[in-house]
Amino acid sequence: MAGRGRSGDRIEPSFSGRPARDDDEFSLDADDRVVGNRSSPRRGSKPPPERPTPRRRREPRERESGGLFGFMRRVIYWCVVLFIWAGIGVAGLVLYYGSRMPSASTWAIPERPPNVKITAVDGSVIANRGATGGEALSLENMSPYIPEAVIAIEDRRFYSHFGVDPLGLGRAIVTNFTAGHMVQGGSTLTQQLAKNLFLSPERTLERKVQEVLLALWLEQKYTKDQILAMYLNRVFFGSNAYGVEAASRRYFNKSARDVNLGEAAVLAGLLKAPSRLSPARDADAANARAQLVLAAMREQGFITDSEVKTAMSQTPASAKSYWSGAGHYVADMVMDELPGLIGDVKEDVVVDTTIDKSLEKKAEQSLVDVLDKEGGKLDASQAALVSIDGTGAIRALVGGRDYAASQFNRAVKAKRQPGSSFKPFVYAAALEKGLTPFSVFNDAPIRIGDWTPENYEKKYNGEVTLATALAKSLNTVAAQLVMYDGPDQVIKLAHRLGIESELQPNASIALGTSEVSLMELTASYAAFMNGGYKATPHVIRRVTTAEGKVLYENTYDSPPRVLSEQIAAQMDTMMMGVIDNGTGKSAKIPGWQAAGKTGTTQNSRDALFVGFTSNLTTGVWFGNDDGKPMKKVTGGGLPAKAWKEFMIAAHKGLSPAPLFGNGQLIGDPNSGQPMAQAAPGDGQGGDGQAGSGQPMTAEAPPSTISGIISGVFGGNDNANRYPQAPVRQPSATSGNGPVPPADIAEGGGSGDENMIPPGDVGSPPTTSSVQPRRTTLLDLIMGK
């Protein structure tokens, strides 16, 4: 043990083996002085040499520096560091890509492309047109199964996340990593809406960052229901359908308001791959995906097990590859006409049409029934139908056999020869010039220039009245009437009644060789039905905005008179004979007066029947798109049968009403009643007898020299009767009198050099088809 040292000396540590105590340092010798709290060495003493202070020994820290616990601490530490740096990096990317976006103050939901809602007379929807193909619906107005199905399969935490779902994103990452490829997305419905509204579909980091920022903005600005409604009304469902309304009508032919559980599951399943899973493309894949949707809905508690079983039987087996239904021909027609009425469509509009949906379905069914039953064996593949009321309003329109197979509207856009269905215009022109239904002409072989018209049955009836000639559709009499009327007068009358197509002024116009559309031909017949007023065909009744502002309303309520009442009544009665005992017997409607005319073109390439009751005027066409001849199909065959089927269905439940004029021919020579006289200025007159107020008898056409001269070379006092009709300058030698029932030499008749018919109508005279040429009084007058 160390002894006390001198004053000022440090205490030496003990080396006795005892560890030095801390208080040993403060031990003092006897000579040391204590001044205050410290010792003072004595004067003159030398300080002892300093010795190092021993350091305390520390216990080993094995638990802190090694083992599993230490490893975990290091892992957690570096994870925190990496997380911080990743956060800094992400924040930097967000700031960078965010700075490349427009200012948030300028963000706004882009306007949804305008929709055109096309409705029938009862307000039901025929179709939707526009970039989206369907109107926007609120969540309250659509089937509740649709939002539930979409949430269940696409974003089950939609109502709880803030626009981005970290749990869903993590689950998608794990699932994709496990599968080795992309099988699940982590985007929320809000993110998908942001992408659809503002961004391109490209997959880049910049777009993903911007998508997240926009999703957060949407969540702050709109409610969840608003976001979901915007998403459902804009998302793509395949087959050019955007929004649930367009998709529902596209695949199920019904509104999204009426979609059932199974159909809602199909729609929700489309969102993963709209084109690949489309029911129109792969019904099995669509239904398989729908089962997954139903399972997800059951898991989320939206539906019960029993509802799942019910829905299994509700999923549609297939859908057509294109819109189906005749109403789409109407919708296309509306879209063609709409810009001319209101200009460019810049907002949602509602187009009220004149279409009766029940008649539309009946019209389509009547054509399909006849084609399915007899079309194959008779080589008839297509048909079209137009039905118009007395004002010109189109009540039904079918442009072809199947819209899904062909969208070409044969009722409106196709122009074909009408055949004998054009003859009523020839007969009406003859009545205007003074003839009557009982005027007699000779049905015999004739020749006009190089053209020899023949009757369909190649038989001749001798002297017949005009009423009989029209009922039997005698070509020879119609050709004589054109020479009597003059082709220009027939064309003027046809244009006046509603034919808009260009008509060729030649003799063969009597047999309908100039092409017209079925719609204009049918509308022209409506003037006979309504008592002589022009029936301008129209399908658009009114156009309004979604708020009800009227943009257009038609003005066809005051049509001009284009035919006198007397002639309209006479034509109605004459055309009744076509159905009662003529070529249109197949079109008889039990209990109703009906009138019409058959039409058949060369080699049965086209067959038509146009007829009317006091309620509707309907035209039907059968044929082939490539002009291939049918097997002896006439207007009195397939077209008349389809016309009858449709008209019976259209008149079911209605009380029969007579035609205009009640179907009576006043002046029948067999009845003893005088023929009604032509009133001054009624559009009649011509050969000096009917126009003079004297009764027309049922005798043959005048055979005197003055009668023939006035008939062949007489003037035309009706050229300006209807100034609204297209006017063509008449020839100076236009004939206005009856043509004698004999051969008409080249250069005879009206003297119009353009009257030579097309080469495919009739045939040049041959020794077998034309009787030996006779020298007639007309030949003498013409210097032959």
Global mean pLDDT: 78
Which structural category do the helix and sheet elements fall into?
A: alpha+beta
CATH architecture of the domain at 132-313: Orthogonal Bundle
The first-to-last residue Cα distance is 174 Å
| CATH classification class of the domain at 132-313 | Mainly Alpha
Topology, number of strands: 16
User: Tell me, what's the shape?
Assistant: elongated
Strand order of the largest sheet: 4-3-5-12-13
- In percent, how much strand structure appears in the residues? 5-15%
The number of helical segments is 22
- Which radius of gyration do the C-alpha atoms yield? 47 Å
Q: Any idea what the CATH superfamily of the domain at 132-313 is called?
A: Biosynthetic peptidoglycan transglycosylase-like
**Low-confidence sequence ranges:** 1-41, 667-784
Biggest sheet features: 5 strands, mixed
Tag the structure with descriptive keywords:
784 residues, Penicillin-binding protein, disordered N terminus, elongated, Penicillin binding protein transpeptidase fold, 22 helices, alpha+beta, five-stranded mixed β-sheet, 16 strands, single chain, Glyco_trans_51, cell shape, peptidoglycan synthesis, disordered C terminus, serine-type D-Ala-D-Ala carboxypeptidase activity
Structural summary, described in words:
With 784 residues, the protein is an alpha+beta fold. Among the domains are: 71-100; 132-313, Biosynthetic peptidoglycan transglycosylase-like (Penicillin binding protein transpeptidase fold, Orthogonal Bundle). Helices cover 35% and strands 10% of the residues. The protein has helices spanning 62-65, 67-99, 145-154, 166-179, 189-198, 205-221, 224-234, 244-252, 261-270, 283-300, 305-312, 327-342, 357-375, 423-432, 466-471, 475-485, 487-497, 518-529, 565-581, 638-650, 705-713, 777-781; strands spanning 33-35, 38-40, 115-119, 125-130, 349-353, 382-388, 394-398, 415-416, 440-443, 462-465, 516-517, 540-545, 550-553, 595-600, 606-612, 617-623. Strands 4-3-5-12-13 form a five-stranded mixed beta sheet, covered by helices on one side. Helix 3 (145-154) crosses helix 9 (261-270), helix 13 runs antiparallel to helix 20 and helix 14 crosses helix 16 (475-485). The chain is elongated, with a radius of gyration of 47 Å. The chain starts with 32 loop residues before the first strand and ends with a helix. Pathway: Cell wall biogenesis; peptidoglycan biosynthesis. Residues 1-63, 660-784 are annotated as: Disordered. Residues 764-774 have a biased composition (Polar residues). Residues 682-691 have a biased composition (Gly residues). The chain crosses the membrane at residues 75-97.
